[in-house]
Structures are given as C-alpha cells and as structure tokens.
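Students often ask why inverse folding is considered easier than folding. One informal answer: many sequences map to the same fold, so there is more than one right answer. In these notes we will look at a single instance of the problem. The structure comes first.
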C-alpha cells in the first residue's frame, strides 16, 4: 500500500517528467530556423516570444516540484518553509508542490 507521501511523490514525479518533455519540445521549437519571408518571419518571432514565456513558466514549475520533492525526502513536506506551520491539506491537494502556507504566500 502506498503512503500519502509516496502518492504525492509519484504525482510530482509524473508531473516533473511531463514538464521536462515539454521544455525539450519548446527548446527544440525555439532552435528551428526561421522562414525568409518577412511576414512569415514576424509571425514566427511572435510565436517564439510565446514559447519563451511558456518555457520560463514551465522551468519555474519544475523548480517548485523539485523543491517539494526535496521536502518529501527531508521529511518536511507539508510544513511551510517560511513560518514552519503546517500547510493546509486543501492547499497541498490543489498545489502539491506548495512549500509555503497561504498566509506566507501572500
């Protein structure tokens, strides 16, 4: 039987693997050569900006998941890294990678 910590770890590891695949695809798309047609090139540059934004967001989520996995390993998962109080289980259910309570997040 899987403990709650094991279930959360498995969920976070699955999400991490998905995000790492996404980053690889985004970075692959960003390295593709652009069209010579100036109109098409402008569209491609706009698309690159969107991809770069997605890449930054994805990398941020990857950092959060890795931090949460580190907390699981240290036995401090579910404890706010700022104030030391327990993180509300509802918050952890909604955001399994949360390392701070709602109060400290604000």
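Output (designed amino acids):
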């Amino acid at each position: 039987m899987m403990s709650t910590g094991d279930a959360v770890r498995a969920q976070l590891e699955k999400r991490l693997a998905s995000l790492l695949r996404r980053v690889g695809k985004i970075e692959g798309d960003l390295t593709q050569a652009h069209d010579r047609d100036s109109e098409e090139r402008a569209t491609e540059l706009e698309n690159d900006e969107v991809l770069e934004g997605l890449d930054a967001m994805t990398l941020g989520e990857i950092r959060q998941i890795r931090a949460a996995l580190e907390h699981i390993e240290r036995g401090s998962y579910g404890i706010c890294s700022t104030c030391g109080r327990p993180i509300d289980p509802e918050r952890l259910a909604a955001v399994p990678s949360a390392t701070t309570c709602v109060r400290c997040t604000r």
